[in-house]
Amino acid sequence: MSQDSQDDLSPWRDQIDALDKQILALLNQRAEAAQQIGHIKQRLNMPVFRPERERQVIEKLHEHNAGPLRNAGVSAIWREVMSACRALEAPQRVAYLGPAGTFSEQAARRFFGASAQGFPCATIDDVFRSYLSGESEFAIVPVENSTEGAVARSMDLLLAHPVHLCGEVSLPVRHFLMRQMPDLQGIQTVAAHPQALAQCAGWLRAHLPNAEIRPVSSNAEGARLAAEDASIAGIAAEATAVLYGLHIAARAIQDEAQNTTRFVVLGAAQPEPTGSDRTSLILSVPNRAGAVYDLLKPLAAHGVSMTRFESRPARSGEWEYAFYIDVEGHQDEPRVATALRELQGVCAMYKCLGSYPIDKKPRDN
User: Fold this and answer.
1) Does 125 map to a domain?
2) H helix runs in 200-348, sequence order
């Protein structure tokens, strides 16, 4: 770099260094305030994590953001600031489908920030066990994908166990084929989670028609196998290749360009209404003509919109199907509360999983 270039850059670098010191001092002031709030919460036995409060903080910052930082960048920065401050109040223990490098870990980091303490679990059943046993304070599990629909095991476990939802994460899913070599030559097996294999089925048929398709417990497990055997390729997030020292042999191989997986957060926190919330229900009706119609009438009568309606075998022997329904609004809002009270009267089984803020993409400023 020439001396002239150095002279041009120096004053700006000096300014950035000075600004960084100011930012650090302000961040530590914020952390001290968060610690004081933590002491008060502990004395009053209040929950440390309030997802709706953190949502409000970020939305206020968006309103005051004059740029050039984009709102998405502001969200990412402040999510980590709040995560670090929250860790000073109390560590957040979060169970997710592991090992490290899975999309579930990405979703957990996006919701809780990097300062939360993650507990990778081998299966979705183990994620629930970690949460229900108290080993983890929170858990995060995938529930649906825009390509493949519902994640069956998560849905069955939400029905089977006394859990409460306090948040959601909608994560864009980009799949990368990774192996020891940077090309497709010599691939005999593709190993990944069944959901990932299904989301990339068209690409695999077109580009690796003779390869064995091997379902494994997680995408990270497929990457681990690929790191041990040059004939195996894994499918996972791009960051997983770095973790396992693999080359990216093909990028963005998912069949749907806008492939998205929705995760829900299990936790005791009960978020208050924010004005943009979702309520999740599991219902069942008596086996009689018109029962499903009666199920929908209270929602329509009170102007409550459904964003999801899905049925699965109830596996209990008492009812034929359980209906998984998401509605717009918070269960404490008057019109939603009235509709839900009427809904309970026509259900053979009624389970409200909770109300929580909708995960919305930040609007550009």
Assistant:
1) yes
2) 201-207, 219-228, 238-244, 291-301, 334-344
